[in-house]
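FW: tagging you since you asked about this chain on Friday. Here's the raw sequence from the shared folder, copied in full. Didn't touch anything.
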Amino acid sequence: MRIGVNTMSFMWRASAMDALETLARQGYRRFEIMAQPPHFDPMMSAPDAQAFARFLRDAGLTVESINLPSLDQNMGSASREMREYSIGLYQRLIAIAQAIGAEAIITVTGRVNPLIPHARKDLEGWFEDAFARVLRLAEGAGIKLLLENIPIGVFPTAAQMVAFAERIGSPAVGICYDIANAHFIGEDVAAGVHAVQSRLGIVHLSDTNRDKWRHDPIGMGSCDFAGFARALREIGYDKSSMLEIVAEDGVGQTVESHGKAAQWGWSAARADSPARA
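HL: got it, structure written out here
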């Protein structure tokens, strides 16, 4: 099970290019980039996207996926203007993904107010309508949308994501399953892997306890990595697992987390296959 690195730890302190260069010096070649300004701007110009693509080619690096966080967008918003703005962000990101060779965009399922949420039918309807418009663009560009199980999303569980994806019915819709997010909401992560197996496109690795939502280095929480890894092997998972560590020492604790993951069957190599030409 091959390992890649998500750039969340670097989101507020370095550009994506600088982060990838730093991680490449540690031997990593596969990445997921957080599309958050100033780290990586989803509204960047076409020439800037082409320049980033040249950087990746010259360095022998691969961005497998781009992750648009829920901080400044919400496709499940009650505000039509916010939904339109969010759709526009995804439209630009699809063009950027094409330019830099990323195969997928991680897609959070909206953002639900934890104190006074809207009725389920409204939340699901708003999100589905917006998502359908983004999906048409993604299908036309050959880009996959991978739904992620975030605790504040409209569809936070494995079963809910699968049901939504099956209702949509497009092969361009997959699932990003995050062990920390699943564990935090009380989900059995091994059962979750089996539930999403037919659409599982990428995995996120970090640790958390259930009293506070975290993306800590592996070993600092109570996630069942042994059971998670066993379930991935049982379904024959052969895609990337992205270390999505949030830590002050982003490089050192990512490398340390990688070493711990290797004991459960993830590849200890940081570049287990030749980089894309």
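FW: The radius of gyration is 17 Å.
HL: agreed, and The CA atoms of residues 44 and 92 lie 8 Å apart.
FW: great, closing this out.
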